[in-house]
Amino acid sequence: MQVSADDALIDLVERLREEGYAFTTVSPTSHARIDARSPDVRARSLRDVFGWSRPFDEDVLSDACLTLMRRAGILAEGEDGLRSTIRVSSLDGKLFVHSAYPPSQSGAVFFGPDTHRFVSAVVAHLDGRTAPVRRAVDVGCGSGAAGIAVAARAPDAEVVLVDVNDAALRLAALNARLAGATVRPVRSNLLDAVEGSFDLVVSNPPFMLDRAGRTYRHGGGTLGEGLSLAVLEAAGRRLAPGGSLVLFTGACIVEGDDPFRTAAAALCRRAGLDGSYREIDPDAYGEELDDPGYAGVERIALVVLTATRGAAA
């Protein structure tokens, strides 16, 4: 029987799991620095192939792994040897498939330290929540990590994963299968293609100024805040009574002020939401400040905004 590409990829990751594979993905900046130490290094292990995205020779992997890679369509051949077009990373006790390094294409499915921070914020909210989650949505789901974390902790809930990137929706569905989680992927710009209200909306939208305009990275607006504010506005129209939005994003600080926080607070007031806001990292992505688009920005903070609609009387 012919094995589908998706089934072959599932089988491959299950083999990695059986081999005890684990890999924590670093930021692209850190990855580039590590590669620069030995620019011609070749893969010698599973982590080198599926984590560090290094070129390899056929004898590094078993024939079974190579066969599954070919069937999955993720084996690329170049002048420097073979490469995997996907990576496999560890998070929340699970393995997640996403795009290989470097994530240079507009439609790359990104996964990195912010994914860990985002999922941690979502899990913390769930741990402190008293109201049940019956319906949840992960907006701009990417790899699906946050939505899958919700599904794992609220197994009776309907969990919808939305994105404009078809590659993200495919990998998110595969990652849900690998995690044993039930989710519903939907191609949607924000919440336009899904109906009804939600008890929980989670989102880690792109928040950088990206000259290449890459979908997974460019947030739009003046300083990258455009998509984050759009998510907040959309959630404000669709949160059920007692429902919450957990938004993980970046905020540019200009002369000591946080324009995103000011704009988000105004949106919360108009939507009748109670908001809490905290910086979880006061200074991230310092290398981006060299870009002229960030002229006048003192720092880029990583923040979590939680906005909640009051319960019905």
Written account of the structure:
The chain is an alpha/beta fold. The chain folds into 2 domains: 5-99, no CATH class; 113-309, 3-Layer(aba) Sandwich (Rossmann fold), CATH 3.40.50. It is 33% helix and 26% strand. The chain has 9 helices and 11 strands. The chain has helices at 5-18, 28-37, 46-50, 63-72, 113-128, 145-153, 166-179, 226-238, 259-271, and strands at 75-78, 81-84, 86-91, 94-99, 135-139, 158-163, 184-187, 198-203, 239-254, 273-284, 297-309. The strands form 3 sheets. A 7-stranded mixed sheet has the order 7-6-5-8-9-11-10, sandwiched between helices. α5 (113-128) runs parallel beside α6 (145-153). The protein is globular. The termini are far apart.
Throw out a few tags for this protein.
globular; 9 helices; alpha/beta; two-stranded antiparallel sheet; 11 strands; 2 domains; about 325 residues; seven-stranded mixed sheet; Rossmann fold
